[in-house]
Amino acid sequence: MAESGPESSELLRIVEHGDAMGATYSVVLYGQDRAGMEAAVDAAFAEVARLDALLSNYRAESEWSEVNRRAAEEPVRVSPELFQLLSKCMATSRASEGAFDIAVGPLMKLWGFYKGSGRLPSQAEVDSVLPSVGWRHVHLDEKNRTVRFDCAGVELDPGGIGKGYAVDCMVDELRRRGFKNALVAGSDSTMVGMGTPPEEPRGWRVGIKDPRNRRRTVDEVFLRDASLSTSGSTEKFFRAEGGVYAHIMDPRTGFPAAASGSVSVIAPRAIDSEAWAKPYFIHGREWTQRHKPGEFRVCFCDGRVEEPCAWLP
Predict the structure, then answer these.
(1) Is 200-313 in CATH node 3.10.520.10?
(2) Which overall architecture, per CATH, does domain 63-156 show?
(3) Residue 185 phi/psi, 5° resolution?
(4) What pLDDT was estimated at residue 7?
């Protein structure tokens, strides 16, 4: 449900929320034409609905699900949009040394994260699915625009990148319609600040939460034509046999990453900040410092009072 009202003598403000792709998306938009603003926000949420139908691994009829069903048997020709997204995923998997892995689907199902609950599998169960896990099993043919798996059991999982891609598409839709000042978010973990809000030239003020106490903010940033994504061990987790297991899977071992705290990434696009927050979390500070692009800003947070959020130089 949209809210609207005059922010000043010239600007209007619209706020809208909606659920899709397993997340709650929101838009805060400033402008001067209420009808145009409402149409733009509706179009942005229509993009999320379109992407849910394209990328969902919960929908049997989605293009993503069709690839998972057929690609081990034959090359599957896909749409230009999906091929471009999968190419981006493969490049990120390669650059992250497998810490981000588009073909982590079997592990997410085994550990119960696919349905959002969680269970502790045995080492034998993990070992049984590991041979079908890994981006190297996925082969893209650019000339024919096809996807092929080189063994049975491979499943692509959009969970590490789909939300960021959806936020970027929402932002692009608002910009196509001439709007320059908005905050677009997928849940609390990925957002883009377009332009600036009224009376704050630094950008959109966003808080980074304490991973040990989500009601506490440990740092603030200002987003101006930039994205922020946060991944942490306390966002989604379950307890079993005296241990805590987070949803951030290390595809190389078959077990959730052992690190604690959270990692926040600021990047030009949400598809990058979301995708890279997880491998930075898995690899840690030293690896991240050596591999992060110059335009990225990265913060490691463990909630300690003396150094609540340590930004890498």
Answers:
(1) yes
(2) Orthogonal Bundle (1.10)
(3) -135, 145
(4) 42
